[in-house]
Amino acid sequence: MELLRYEDIDLSQTVKRSEEDVNNVLDTVSDILKNVRQNKDQALKDYTQKFDKVIIDNLKVTDEEIKEAYDTLDDNLLEALKKAAANIEKFHKKECANLKILNNEHFPQNPSNLFALSENV
Fold it and tell me: Phi, psi at residue 9, to the nearest 5°?
């Protein structure tokens, strides 16, 4: 596996995708969001069963469950997760500097504003 350092990544090359790939993703995400809006918690339970192979009755995680999970987490894994979160935040901030908001007329099938790299607009 190749190790990439954030500073060494050419962001413009990393985030380029073909229009077809983006449209496929947008269609899939749109379908999932529509299902969740219509079927609410049941849609989330169905997706959990489909993708995670777990049947859940209650979506709410209690404070005790969160504390127990945190307390049983390996220290090395916790540090790795913290570092990953920091890297994701750093990447997101840099990415946001290159984004331009497109209004709804560009994507009439999606009522919310979408973002695209200004280079690709």
Answer: -85, 130
Residue type, 73: L
The model carries a pTM of: 0.44
The domain spans of the chain are 22-60, 74-121
Residue 22: name the closest of 104, 120, 93 by CA: 120
Partners of 115 in beta bridges: 101
Identity of the amino acid at 23: N
Q: 99 CB contacts (<8 Å, ≥6 apart)? A: 115, 116, 117, 118
Residue pLDDT, tens place only, 21-36: 676 788 888 999 999 9
* 16-75 confidence digits (pLDDT tens): 655 556 767 888 889 999 999 999 999 999 999 999 999 999 989 999 999 999 899 999
Helix (H, G, I), strand (E, B) or coil at 47: helix
